[in-house]
Design a protein that fits this description.
The chain starts with 7 loop residues before the first strand and ends with a helix. By secondary structure, the chain is of the alpha+beta class. The strands form two sheets. Strands 1, 2, 3, 4, 5, 6 and 7 form a seven-stranded mixed sheet that branches. The chain contains six helices and ten strands.
């Protein structure tokens, strides 16, 4: 690399979902794309691409994500800008976005993309605890995204981003446990959640093999993520 080389700007996206394994566990997972050319040919990488002169970084992130995976979250949050000098054979700064998607939304969007005849190629979902070798510094990027998520769950309602509009407290606790990577005491969790006042009980119940469980919904008077003072063009794909 020489100082005369131009600095290019790329975008990448970390998409996280909570999916159920064959043995019934709920695990965090994300899509990766298999690179087909150098550098790092035949290695997995985050969805992404180059920022063009005609689009904002968040629009570029949404475009490249849709092109590579068929996914289109309604909201992308900027995670960080990664610009270590030696992160790529040429000088590249990557603006990274992240988003949470419910598994049913993932399945519906992928199905619609396939039905359109534009099925994404070279895409595979991996559990975050079982990632392959990754191109560039993408392992560090994912590690940082998970760190942000695990910190955010302590002071926000980010776990609800993995759940449907109505959910049981057991389902919410399972989301917390998957994010934090540890078991939580059900009774203590219930007390803490109810004391926070962020959930609204409904008059509906989920029935099954166990006794009926009350369904709750999010308090929509509070944003899922604090978007701060920036305008919507900086933080949203809509």
């Amino acid at each position: 690399m020489t100082r005369s080389q131009p600095i290019r700007v790329a975008v990448s996206t970390v998409i996280l979902t909570l999916r159920r394994t064959d043995d019934g566990r709920a695990v965090l997972a994300l899509p990766l794309v298999l690179r087909t050319r150098a550098p790092f040919a035949q290695q997995w990488a985050l969805p992404g691409g180059w920022l063009t002169a005609e689009e904002s970084p968040v629009d570029a992130a949404a475009r490249t994500l849709a092109e590579t995976t068929g996914l289109a979250p309604s909201y992308l949050e900027q995670l960080y800008a990664f610009g270590a000098v030696d992160r790529s054979p040429t000088r590249v700064v990557s603006i990274v976005y992240w988003a949470l998607l419910r598994q049913d939304d993932v399945e519906a969007q992928i199905a619609a993309h396939r039905a359109s005849g534009r099925a994404p190629e070279n895409v595979q979902w991996f559990e975050v605890d079982e990632l392959p070798a990754l191109a560039f510094d993408h392992a560090k990027i994912i590690e940082y995204a998970l760190w942000r998520l695990r910190n955010k769950v302590g002071y926000s309602r980010v776990a609800q981003g993995f759940l449907p509009e109505e959910f049981t407290l057991a389902e919410l606790r399972e989301a917390y446990e998957s994010i934090l990577g540890r078991q939580l005491d059900p009774a203590n969790f219930r007390r803490q959640v109810e004391a926070a006042g962020n959930l609204l009980p409904t008059d509906r119940f989920r029935t099954g093999s166990h006794r009926p469980a009350r369904l709750y919904r999010d308090n929509t008077d509070v944003e899922l993520a604090d978007r701060g003072p920036l305008g919507p063009e900086e933080t949203s794909t809509r």
